[in-house]
Amino acid sequence: MQINSKLPNVGTTIFSIMSKMANDHGAINLAQGFPDFPVSPQLIDRVHHYMKQGFNQYAPMPGVPVLRKAIADKTERCYGWRPNEDQEITVTCGAIEAINSTISALIHAGDEVIIMDPAYDAYEPIINLQGAKAIGVPLRKTDYSIDWQAVESKITDRTKMIMINSPHNPSGAIISADDLRNLEMLTSGTDIFILSDEVYEHILFDGDLHQSVLRSEELRNRSIVTSSFGKTFHATGWRMGYLVAPTGIMAEVRKVHQYNTFTIHTATQYAIADYLADASNYESVAPMYQQKRDFFLNKMASSKFKPIPAKGTYFQLMDFSAISDTGDVEFSEWMTKEIGVATIPMSVFYQDKQDNKVLRFCFAKDEETLAAAAEKLCAL
C-alpha cells in the first residue's frame, strides 16, 4: 500500500535511540530524562489504597474533583491566583497529551506557531500534524535567553500561538519577570494564544522563583499552562499531567481531550490529591535536585567538559569542544559505545540541527550513578 506520511521527516526519537544504545552497550544512561531513584513510598501506598478501595473504573473526563481542587489550591499557593477547578483545570495523560490536545484544538492548517529554538523535539511534529508551521526563534547562544525583538520580528497575521518553556528543556534556562512583561506587550490586543510548558515548575535552583504566566492577569487570559506530576514526583511512567486555561479555551481543549485519552488512571488521581495536601512534597523537590546538580558538577570539575549554567530542570549542558571536533551526534554515540555514558546531542533540538559541540546530561540519578558516570567522563 502507498502511505502518504503526515510526518515524513520524523523517525524514532533521539531519547529512544540513545536509551536503547545505552542498554545494548551497558552504558550509564544520562540521556533520557527519567530518575533512577524510587517514587515516594507514601505516594505509592496511597495509589495502592485507592485501588484496594475499588477506585478502578473511569474517572470523570476532566479529572476527579478532589484532584482538581488540590491543583487549584496549589496554584493559588504558588502563584497567588486560583483557577476555577470545574472549568479551568483538566487532568491529562502527561504534559505531552496536554500539549497535543491544546495544539490540536486551537491551531488550524496555515497557522503559524512561534517556538523557541532549541525546543523540546515534540513541539514541531505536533504543530505539523495540524497543517501549521513552526516558526523557530533562536535563543541567545550565551545563556539561552529569549530575544524578544527577534520574537516580534516573526509575528505575522498568521501567528496564532507563541510557545514558551520554563524551566527550559534542554538548556535549563528560566524565564524572568521581565520576560513576562515583554510577552505581555507583544501579545496585548492580539488573538495570539500562549502555550506555556511549565513541567519543571518545581525544579529551580539558587533561590530563583518560577515565573509562571499564571502570575500575570494579562497573560493568563490567553494562556494554556501545562504541568507534570511525573516530573515533580519523579514518576514519569505514570503519565500524569494537567492543564490550566481560561474557561473558553479549556472548553475547546476538552473537546479534543475527551476523544484522545478521555480520562486518566483513577486511583493515581486520588492518591496525588492526598499527596498535594502537604506542600513540602513539591516544595522539597528543588533542593533535592540542586544537591544532585552540584554533586555532578563537583565530580565533573576535573574533566575537560565545560558546564553551561543550569538554573532549572534536571539537565546539565556540557560543552565538549575541548575534547573533540567530532559532530555531537557522532560523539554522543561514540561515548555510549566506548566510554559507557549515554547523553543527548543538543543539535537534535534545533530546527536547523546546528552543532555547537554541546551535550545534555540528565542528573536525576542516584549519587552512585552520577559518580560512576563522572569517573568515566573525567578520563577523557
TrEMBL record:
Gene3D superfamilies xrefs: Aspartate Aminotransferase, domain 1, Type I PLP-dependent aspartate aminotransferase-like (Major domain)
GO cellular component entries: cytoplasm
InterPro entries linked to this entry: Aminotransferase_I/II_large, Kynurenine-oxoglutarate_AT, PyrdxlP-dep_Trfase, PyrdxlP-dep_Trfase_major, PyrdxlP-dep_Trfase_small
Pfam families: Aminotran_1_2 (PF00155)
CDD domains referenced in this protein's UniProt entry, alphabetically: AAT_like
Cofactor(s) it depends on: pyridoxal 5'-phosphate
GO MF terms held by the record: kynurenine-oxoglutarate transaminase activity; pyridoxal phosphate binding
Keywords in alphabetical order: Aminotransferase, Pyridoxal phosphate, Transferase
Domain Aminotransferase class I/classII large: 28-377
Family: Belongs to the class-I pyridoxal-phosphate-dependent aminotransferase family.
Alphabetized NCBIfam families for the sequence: PRK09082.1
Protein name: Aminotransferase
The species this protein was found in: Roseivirga misakiensis
